[in-house]
Amino acid sequence: MTLTELYVVLAVGTGVVLVSVTAARLATRLGMPVLLAYLGVGLLLGQDGLGLPFDDAALAQALGLAALAVILVEGGLTTDVKHVRPVLAPATVLATLGVLVSVALTAVAAYLLLDIGWQTALLLGAIVSSTDAAAVFSVLRSVPLPKRLTSLVEAESGLNDAPTFILVLTFSATGLEAIEPLPLLAAMIFQLAAGGAIGLAVGAAGVWLLRRLTLPTSGLHPIAIVGCGVLAYAVAGLTQTSGFLAAYLAGLVLGNAGLPHRRATRSVAEGLGWIAQIGLFVMLGLLVTPSELASSVVPALVVGAALLLFARPASVLLSLAAFRVPLREQVFLSWAGLRGAVPIVLATIPVVAGSPGSDRVFNIVFLLVVVFTVIQAPALPWLARRLRLTPHDVGPDLQVELAPLDAMDADLIHVTVEPGSRLQGVYLPELRLPPPAATTLVVRGPDTFVPDEHTRLRVGDQLVVLTTPRVREATERRLRAVARGGRLAGWFGETGDPEPTSPTGRRRQCTSNA
């Protein structure tokens, strides 16, 4: 690759990322998961759009599985285990028994309603039986729901990718006549148990190591933590066990171990997760040729309707029969089973394996994900209200954003009142900081408080002054002037502090309260 080609790749790649971010904002305003925006960007760039060729299913599968590993690690790192623990049992049953029920019923519907064989029907049922929490939460972000319900959906989505992946691999590589149910079930249990053990072990080893390893900079901690999660995925894959489950559980252990720099780790993990999602969905959009989708519209609608109205509700009811989950929550869970990246990535496995009818299966899955996301996602907030899961007198959950100061066009000035400084004894109004600068916080020994006009500075006080770039230098000059000249600095023309003026620009006179 020449330098010119490198520059072109970088320019196109960053342009795609920026367009995807902008499209995601539009999708959010319309109440749609952002995955549709990323898929749309890929379709726009593809062969029927701007003509960018991409038809390498094997490369798409490899990159897709790598992206899913990062997404699952990020999901584990950002999940609070205290919310998952109470719903772990029903989530596990949903992710195992529920998946088997959904696969069986979807396959029966596909076999009876479409002109396909049993193996293709089972393959199709396995591919579309995995839910996507990211799609659900991107829609429900502003809807207050019971924490138990959101935790159940989140835990199920993190756990059900593993069994569906095993089933898709089996149905893609093995003839139906050679598959024996009991050995297959035993192999699945072993792969899940061993993959889970590897994830827990790698996560615990990562915690032990990072607590004893002193890294030269805080920026290396997030990289090491995410790296441990990806390592669990790779080790499980090498041992022919469930890498998806290993990645999720390793992230869960690392994210809840109280390691240092947790906030930075979450931020880095979320950033990597978003990069993985953008790249994954844009790539999958590129892989699809829209002109070839017309013949798959009706099959996608038939299979999707059977999954949404029959297979998913039955799997939820059967899986949660032994648990005290209210019926209205089960109804919501049935509708909230959105499909996202995982089914489309899984659909590349039979294409790479050369399974009969795999191209048709991929097109059906792609259309099913897009169409039923458009149908289900906007209805979720309405359904939550109709089922009385959203209290009428409670507003949306507060979304707390850690905004960097540069995003707010603001600066922080940290000042310590040293012994001998004439800031000692000065009342806050006597600082006369240029507006809009303001002292927002004072740290005094073990105490931290928001100051007011009666606050008098003492030796050892630490002041946090919020200002804007426009008046930052003037604020610094004023603080230095008071530190040298005391509360009367500026009234007699001391250097560093302009004399105060009235709003009309004329000099005003006042007396100090000191």
From TrEMBL:
A cellular-component GO term for this protein: plasma membrane
Residue intervals of the RCK C-terminal domain: 400-481
Places the protein is found: Cell membrane
Residue ranges that the Swiss-Prot or TrEMBL entry lists as coiled coil: none
Membrane topology: Multi-pass membrane protein
SUPFAM superfamilies: TrkA C-terminal domain-like
Segments traversing the membrane: 6-27, 58-77, 89-114, 185-210, 219-236, 242-259, 271-288, 300-323, 335-355, 361-383
UniProt entry keywords in alphabetical sequence: Antiport, Cell membrane, Ion transport, Membrane, Transmembrane, Transmembrane helix, Transport
PROSITE patterns listed in its UniProt record: RCK_C
Biological processes annotated in GO: potassium ion transport; proton transmembrane transport
Region of interest: Disordered: 490-514
Annotated GO MF terms: antiporter activity; monoatomic cation transmembrane transporter activity
One matching Pfam family: Na_H_Exchanger
InterPro entries per the UniProt record, alphabetical: Cation/H_exchanger_TM, Na+/solute_symporter_sf, RCK_C, RCK_C_sf
Positions with biased composition (Basic residues): 505-514
NCBIfam families according to UniProt: PRK05326.1-2, PRK05326.1-3
Protein name per the record: Potassium/proton antiporter
